[in-house]
Amino acid sequence: MFGRLSVVTTIAAITFIAALLTACGSSTTNGPDSTQPSQANQSAPTVQPATETPAPTRLSTSSQEKLFLSADQFDEVEVELVAGDLLRVVYTSEVSISPGLGGTGHQERGVQVAVLDPNEEQLITTDESADNSVEVAAEVTGIHRIVFINPNRLEGLNVNLEYFINP
Fold first, then answer.
1. 14 CB-side CA count, 13 A
2. Which 3-state string (H, E, C) describes the chain?
3. Per-domain residue ranges for the chain?
4. Does residue 144 contact residue 134 with C-beta atoms inside 8 Å?
């Protein structure tokens, strides 16, 4: 019985040592350089540097609107912008002159303009003496509002505007 047990023990020990050597990745002995790992273990996987994917560029778009602002009132136009978009608004504001008030036609009048982001923060505000255009860069994505305010207490205004996104 001791003879049979020693044979089973020897086979189990050899199997255990073989499994241990396989798990540890033993290398074959190639003479005096047997302490160096095999060629398969020397090559480390190469890591490709991460490349930054450029953000897709939105195409330039534009739209025209006509607004009527009653005396001392406001109106707005909503525009969907993505963070980084450039918004340019070009506008004219005028009052219609009735024939009984000293003439006919249209006369330019000032209007106040504000651009608000989706968080209701003002990106820009102008007074009525400002140039007839504003330009802002969107800082956040969402619906931005272009607000036109009629500062005249007695006259309504016609506002013609054209806005450009990424002109």
1. 6
2. CHHHHHHHHHHHHHHHHHHHHHHHCCCCCCHHHCCCCCHHHHCCCCCCCCCCCCCCCCCCEEEEEEEEECCCCEEEEEEEECCCCEEEEEEEEEEEECHHHCCCEEEECCCEEEEECCCCCEEEECCCCCCCEEEEECCCCEEEEEEEECCCCCCCEEEEEEEEECC
3. 63-165
4. no
Cβ atoms of 117 and 96 within 8 Å: the answer is no
40: left (phi over 0), alpha (psi -120 to 50) or beta: alpha
102-158 tens-digit pLDDT? 555 667 788 999 999 999 999 999 987 778 999 999 999 999 999 999 998 888 999
| Sequence-distant (≥ 6) Cβ neighbours of residue 71 within 8 angstroms | 150, 152, 153, 154, 155, 156
In this predicted model, what pLDDT tens digit does every residue of 5-57 receive, in sequence order? Answer: 566 566 766 766 666 556 655 544 555 554 555 555 555 555 555 444 444 45
Task: Tell me which CATH code domain 63-165 carries.
Answer: 2.60.120.380
pTM for this one?
A: 0.60
